[in-house]
Write a structure and sequence with these properties.
Layout: H1 3-26, E1 28-32, E2 41-49, E3 53-60, E4 65-72, E5 77-82, E6 89-92, H2 93-96, E7 99-103, E8 108-116, H3 118-122, E9 126-135, E10 158-161, E11 170-173, E12 182-186, E13 191-200, E14 203-209, E15 217-221, E16 225-228, E17 246-253, E18 261-271, E19 274-280, E20 286-292, E21 295-297, E22 304-309, E23 312-317, E24 321-326, H4 327-331
Parallel strand pairs: 1-3
Antiparallel strand pairs: 2-9, 3-8, 4-7, 4-9, 5-6, 5-8, 10-13, 10-16, 11-12, 13-14, 14-15, 17-18, 17-24, 18-19, 19-20, 20-21, 22-23, 23-24
Length: about 325
Amino acid sequence: MGRPAKFLFCFFLLLLVFNRLSHAADDVKSINVHFPAGSHSVSFKDSVRGDHTIEYRLEARAGQQMHIIFKASNPSTSFNLLAPDGAEALHRGAADGAEFNGALPSDGIYKVQVYLTRSAARRKKMSHYTLTMTIAGGPNGATREPDFSDGTTGGPDYWQVTGLKPNDSLKMHERPALNGTIILAFSEGAILRNLGCNDQHGTRWCRVVSPEDPNVTGWVEARYLRESFNPPPLKDALVPGTHYHATGNVQCRRTANAPVLSCHFGVVRSNPGTTVVDITFPDGFQRTLYFSKGRVEAEIGVSLTTRHENDNTIVTIGENERYVIPGVILEGD
């Protein structure tokens, strides 16, 4: 091959390599992530096809907590999370799954790459997806303390119950008042969805959703809440058509020298160690008992005593009213 021919060959080879590199660069679409004002979470809905990659770039700081939830129409779609230096993959979706939740190791620009696995990419498959990213501590790496319920940002998506006295529980009321009807009770660490907060007669209250049933909402005192960056854990299944995890009958007695009756009950298990039992007598009289880490309470102003007999908790109100609550009701199967 003569010199002119070799020159042309090398020229076309370099051109081919350049075109391939240019094409590879075009296959990566970069998006700079900016959180909406007053928010620590952002979601994207997009699609990816073939060997294309969509890369989300966001700034964060060491020690912040990142939570990523990924849902896709094609199960061959995944995401990777790369640390700022690019040398460490904090999460490889193909092996680690569709969710990441962890502390970030360093300051800098993190990359979340959405892609199709090799076999699907070769077949030019397409996938529609939703990517949700949350960073604890503030948008774009801004350092701040967790968002408490007296903040000015409107509050987070979720609260965590904190600051209770030992063996105490946080009551959910039907309205924002201490004398409002009690609906449920939550133990330390419970995670509740936030529906907004406001002041009532000098006390700040937040409206929250029950972790067990999204149709059950009520008010709790805001001073026992702080921001949570995780949704509530999954709970046991509900009895169809009710907000109870179990229903049945328990032994009950309402007046002195009255025969022992069989009363209908419904139980809501809020969190480990926290249970609410609604009891209804045959004549319609109702009583609600709140169990929280060994402590038992009734409505405000009602005093009671308890004792344990085998696997049962015996609850006595006054001298005559009495209930026998089996342990399986409180703990589940």
